[in-house]
Amino acid sequence: MEVLAPDVTLWSDGGGKVTAARRPLHGPDQVARWMLGVMAKPQSADITLRPAPTNGETGVLLSIGELLSAP
Question: SUPFAM superfamilies, from UniProt (predicted)?
């Protein structure tokens, strides 16, 4: 949680292929809980995180195999 900004917001999009959060998640506690939940799933071995520009700031793009989600 130390690397998350106090005003962090997670936007999730499953691209119609996987379930995603229906609303944005706000705050480091909610975002960290979501990320830990995703990483606890069996497909977590295929997770890749990489920096990505998001609305003019640095964000993180989370990919699960061929599926993408943008926190």
Answer: NTF2-like
Q: In terms of DSSP bridges, do strands 47-54 and 57-64 run parallel, antiparallel, or are they unpaired?
A: antiparallel
CA–CA gap between residue 59 and residue 54 (Å, rounded): 5
Domain boundaries, given as residue ranges, for the chain? 9-69
Helix (H, G, I), strand (E, B) or coil at 64: strand
Task: Name residue, tokens 């998350």.
Answer: 4
CA distance 24 to 59: 14
- Whether pTM > 0.85 for this model: the answer is no
Question: Residue 8 above 60 pLDDT?
Answer: yes
